[in-house]
Design goal:
Shape: elongated
Structural class: alpha/beta
Radius of gyration: 21 Å
Helix content: 40-55%
CATH architecture of the largest domain: 3-Layer(aba) Sandwich
Number of helices: 12
Number of domains: 2
């Protein structure tokens, strides 16, 4: 792991992702001052009270003066506005990275608004999180032994990439690299589709006349499967819209599998159902 020192970090979006990044770097002893910026003043006040950030900042020269690293940890739908807002104030040496769950759209808005600093922009995605949000949900162990994917562009400098990699490694993460399009396709399958299924299932039950009664009889399986439906609606709205083509592909694959299962149920084919369940259990066991 490359040694890293970040005298001044600016975190835009001091919630679960940005706040946990700041706390992890503080725990590792590699960061000096943490400046926080957010849309909501109450979020920043809470983040400061909890020690997630050291100073409340704004989109101005003072807040970005001397910044070594800037993490944009907002929903991906906000990133274009954020990049446009920070562009006039970025110091010459400041490296910018993000924590968005989709990458091709983030790179597109970075090219539009950070055209003069693309060599210092490192697109990234920490594949970790919980269903909770806000500064109170942040904790320093969030990234320990979790994967963080970097999707550097052709313009990204080796120095910028090394700094971002070292920062995430200081958080305890396992860092790898992928092309942005491959990242978006993979995450549509293993992250975005499961969230969509959880949201849709809870909404379908809730819309039934006896929805409350159904929920009252649910057990651990339903709770586990739908936990992620408690995630931020704004964040996931932006993710699905930005990666809708890849998600649509995965949704079609899933529909095809459901059709297969429906036919087995209709036929009363217990042996085939058991074979499917056994294949699934074995595949999950190998993955774990």
């Amino acid at each position: 792991m490359t040694a890293v020192r970040i005298p001044r970090l600016v975190v835009i979006g001091a919630g679960l992702i940005g706040g946990s990044f700041a706390l992890a770097l503080k725990r590792a002893g590699v960061v000096g001052e943490v400046v926080g910026i957010s849309r909501r003043p109450e979020t920043l006040e809470q983040a400061k009270q909890l020690g997630v950030i050291d100073r409340i900042g704004a989109y101005d020269a003072e807040s970005f003066a001397g910044a070594d690293l800037v993490l944009v940890a907002t929903p991906v739908g906000q990133m274009g506005k954020v990049f446009a807002a920070i562009a006039p104030f970025l110091p010459r040496e400041a490296v910018v990275t993000d924590g968005g769950s989709t990458k091709q759209d983030v790179i597109a808005v970075a090219r539009e608004h950070l055209a003069g600093t693309l060599d210092r922009f490192v697109p990234a995605h920490p594949i970790s999180g919980t269903e909770k949000s806000g500064p109170g949900a942040a904790f320093p162990e969030l990234y320990v032994d979790r994967r963080v994917v970097l999707t550097p562009m052709a313009e990204t400098s080796a120095r910028a990439q090394a700094l971002v990699r070292a920062a995430w490694e200081a958080c305890g993460a396992r860092v790898s690299e992928l092309p942005a399009d491959e990242h978006d396709a993979m995450l549509a399958a293993v992250s975005h589709l499961p969230h969509l299924l959880a949201f849709a299932l809870v909404d379908e039950f809730a819309a039934r006349p006896n929805g409350e009664r159904i929920f009252s009889f649910s057990g651990g399986g339903f709770r586990d499967f739908t936990r992620i439906a408690s995630s931020s609606p704004e964040m996931w709205r932006d993710i699905f819209l930005s990666n809708r083509e890849a998600v649509s592909v995965e949704l079609k694959h899933y529909r095809d599998k459901l059709e297969e299962v429906q036919k087995l149920l209709d036929a009363g084919d217990g042996a085939a159902l058991e074979n499917l369940f056994e294949r699934s259990r074995s595949a999950r066991g190998r993955w774990l």
